[in-house]
Amino acid sequence: MVGTCRLRFDAPKVMGIVNVTPDSFSGDGIVHDASRAILRGKAMFDAGADLVDVGGESTRPGAEPVPVEVETLRTTGVVEALSVHRPGRVSIDTFKPEVAERALFAGATTVNDVTGLRDPRMISVVAEHDASVIIMHMKGEPRTMQVRPRYKDVVAEVASFLMDRVDAAEAAGVSPGRIMVDPGIGFGKTLDHNLEIIARLREFKAIGKPIVIGVSRKAFIGKLTDLPPEERVEGSLAAAVLAVRNGADVVRVHDVPETVRALKVAAPILSRQRTRGVH
What we know:
The protein is of the alpha/beta class. It has one domain: Dihydropteroate synthase-like (TIM Barrel), CATH 3.20.20.20. An eight-stranded parallel β-sheet has the order 6-5-4-3-2-1-8-7. Helix 3 runs parallel beside helix 4. The protein starts with 12 loop residues before the first strand and ends with a helix.
């Protein structure tokens, strides 16, 4: 369930990324031009995106905080226009309750919170609006998350965090059917941590919620390919398909047409494998 629009997870879904920011790590940010952001979001829907995620603050490693008023100004108009274009399929990427509430009033039906609902006010906003929510794991905060992150067992620790946050959300009144989880690739993880999470992604199924994953153009792909963000499309597609094979229900991506096409080929093959018990 995504907000007021039921999203069936019988096939992998694609969430497009619209960054209304000047400092996105991927180099695709748009700022001070809502019309371009709206056009990009509409193009993503037209290319087959099931959801579009609008963000007004970069959460790349080392990113500086953005004031609530600035983030709200960047995102609200874009959310409103895209919600008219495709009702029930727009998400707001924020960890600030005030920004989320404005976006929900503007038509968003999902909140994508990279801090995993650590702010109890965000849980209240999601519950009061009966919104869907993506609970993500991040170690620390954007400015420091990549400073020597350590885990004994990255999958077990991330899964434990996500389960705790799911329990907290449900206890506070968030509808169980509106919760998704994201292990947070690149958010306080080394290359080895990221690869381990993708390889063992199916273990997160024990949480009992749809799994969202964002691998698109991430730094771990750059480390493996020695390519800048704008040249990581092929690596992103490979990671997305493997994530779906390992249990991802939603892939959050910059390159929607390419991902949709790749999954049109991969999904039916993977479905046949699952039918035969091949994992």
